[in-house]
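Quick check before the chapter quiz. The format below is the same one you will see on the exam, so make sure you can read both the input and the output lines.
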Amino acid sequence: MQSLLKRSGLTFTIYALLLPLLFSLVASPEPVQAGSSAVAWNETGLSLPTGSPLTCFDGLQPSRLLAASKGSNDLPAGTYTFDWQSGGQRAQLNQNPFSLCNESNGRLYASARGTEGASQFTSLAPSGQTILYTPDEIASDGSDFVYAIASKKLFASSNGGLDWQERGQTLGPGVQAVSATQASGQAVYALVKVKYSATEDTYSLFFSPDAGQTWGKRYQANYSNSAALVIEAGLGRNAPVEALLLYVTLKSTGTYQTTSLLSSDGGRNFVQIEQNNLNYQKPTPDNRKFFFTGQGFLRITNHYSRVLAVDRSTDWGRTWQPLPLPSGLINDPLGLKEEFGKPVTLLQVEWSPANLFLSFADGTGDIYSSNDGGLSWQFLVKNMPDLKISPYAPLTLIGIKTRKLYSLELSEAGKGLLAKVLPGHSTGNEFFSETGHNLDGVFRAYWQAHGGLAQFGYPWTETFREVNASDGKLYTVQYFERNRFEYHPENKGTPFEVQLGLLGNQLTDKQRAANDPAFRPTVNRNLPDGVFFEQTGHNLATGFKAYWEANGGLPIYGYPISEEFDEINPEDGKTYTVQYFERNRFEYHPENKGTKYEVLLGLLGNSLLKVKGWLE
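Here is the expected output.
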């Protein structure tokens, strides 16, 4: 998820971070005892500069943390990159400390010296460019859409701020806030003050599906002119675009009363889900109290930084059920017990929403993890005052303590990606109830054009970003039963924009490294109607050759990386004649002789997910 260090509008002051949701029914509200830990922090040898620098993950280069220093005795002002894997290296990108970071695409923003605008840059292009406006809202879906409010007018950019267009002409000059959904950076809400008076003002809520080119009015209400309103549509990658939070804060006799309202229909109707008298600040990824993560909604009840309860709703805030908490925390929403619970930080892995982390923030507590959305908790590792979660797989925690950086990789945490989600509602979306996942956009177009279910199987995950084992780069991917789709933006507009993962190579690394006879390069055997590939030193003939040629050939399967040999299928325990290719495995099924199922593709997606520990 992007690190938004600046967002539009006012938001609340809750010190406990937003928690992700649960995707299965809650069994008991009683505290859950934690298990033992078998992991430990790795020292990186790196230290942040003095002060409180802003930090975020680099969205373009894995294993790098970015820090913005305003200048100190040990480090001049600027943006720095910290590589915690390559021997603990630190390097300065430029002399501009960023104030806004988009972890989904690597774009950074800093105030431009001597201008009213800003500069936009990345770790791969640190010199950057000057832009007209500092964004008030950033798309977190990997796109380059950003939005800015200037003179209470709304402007949009589709290329990260290099070019701007006014998009709120029909809204008038009263735009107060803009919020983009995480499912789509083009699906945005705008809050507009349409009428002023001495006692109360009139607010209207608008929605646009196309980055502000067209708008539809959703809601209108009058509030005291002392009221402050905030909208929040960034409720999670799995949240439908119709999910929206509206916060209304009223000041009365020196106190602030904030009411939280939830909409499941795009702002047409709201349900009150919280009311209190605390003085809130605007919600950011570090202090949100509500979050949608697939099949439900979580609410954190707290007293300042002390958590009293975590509740879940599956009917959009109409009813709530308490979730179990680890030992040391209590479920006491009314605050009647003598101990209000310990100060904690609650974190969610946005790209794997069933994975939660809970850190006691009192300096003496520990960190707990949950991979089932909070139904059970396990003691993970000793406490860190500041935790950061990588926005890509494999999941990495970065801990910051006394300015020193520590890392912890949790490769099996990605199993939460397989948790079922709700059907998407975007145009062209296809939902598969068999696995509980959606297929959309360019991946759906590729899936349909190249064989669909027979070639690739059902989707096991939603889209997420992952470090590619072949080249070490970051790609947006989606796993299927038989393969992995990878989005290659460098090939946008070409037939190679979507590519299949090299799962055949990945799953046979050990056999090929051991010079296994079946994978050992050989000579041209001059097989009848066969073909020899010098690139890999292997032959292809008979039924496998016919299937390879008829169903996509090189772009779909890659070169053969083995000869034919007999292998036990891990799915059913039977032995089949097989041949491995860079991207898949062919299996000969004699029981289907004479039918179109005589040759079947191996379930390599399943196999790789099992190797990762994500699939049982």
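If your answer matched, good. Helices lie at 441-449, 452-456, 503-507, 509-513, 542-550, 553-557, 604-612.
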